[in-house]
Structures are given as C-alpha cells and as structure tokens.
Specification:
The protein has about 90 residues and is an alpha+beta fold. It contains four helices and three strands. The chain folds into two domains: about 40 residues, YefM-like fold (3-Layer(aba) Sandwich); about 45 residues, no CATH class. The protein has a three-stranded mixed β-sheet. Antitoxin component of a type II toxin-antitoxin (TA) system.
Length: about 90
C-alpha cells in the first residue's frame, strides 16, 4: 500500500471508521488523517504502537547509558560485580 493510500480526510474517518480500523489492523500500516488538507493525526494498530513504544524506550535507555559513559559515570563489569557481591555478603 502506498503512502498516498494511507492518507484519509477526517470526513472519511467519520463515515468509515470500522472499515478503516479493519484495514489498519489487517495491513499493519498506519493511516494519516487530514483536516482541511493538513495532516493532523496518525492512526495505527495497537500491536505496532506497542512495538514502537518498546523500541523507543530501549533507544532512550541506550542514549542514557551512552550519556553516562561520556560523563565518566560508568564502571567496568568486574568492579560492578565485585560491588554487588560485597553487598550480597553484607545482606
């Protein structure tokens, strides 16, 4: 399906909601909803939404980790394991 086919005016969404939802769930391709000729919203199936959300969270964690490394707040694996083992012995 081409990008052009996924662009729908809001009037189409209002009158064909069930059909559009079925199409989105079947093709797993999001629909862009326009209002007055301008893109205003994206409608996508829940599974794709959740996959995208998980991917973004992982990217955020990776970016935070890189920032910590650049900021000198990282420790090597051996030091981290030694710290954990010491804490476990004290517990």
């Amino acid at each position: 399906m081409s990008l052009k086919e996924t662009i729908k005016p809001i009037s189409y969404v209002k009158t064909h909601t069930a059909e559009l939802v079925h199409q989105i769930n079947h093709t797993r391709q999001a629909a862009i909803v326009t209002q007055n000729g301008e893109p205003r919203a994206v409608v996508q199936d829940i599974e794709t939404f959740e996959q995208t959300r998980r991917a973004l969270l992982l990217l955020k964690l990776a970016a935070q980790g890189e920032a910590e490394i650049r900021g000198g707040r990282a420790v090597d694996q051996a030091s981290a394991l030694a710290t954990i083992e010491a804490r476990l012995r004290r517990a």
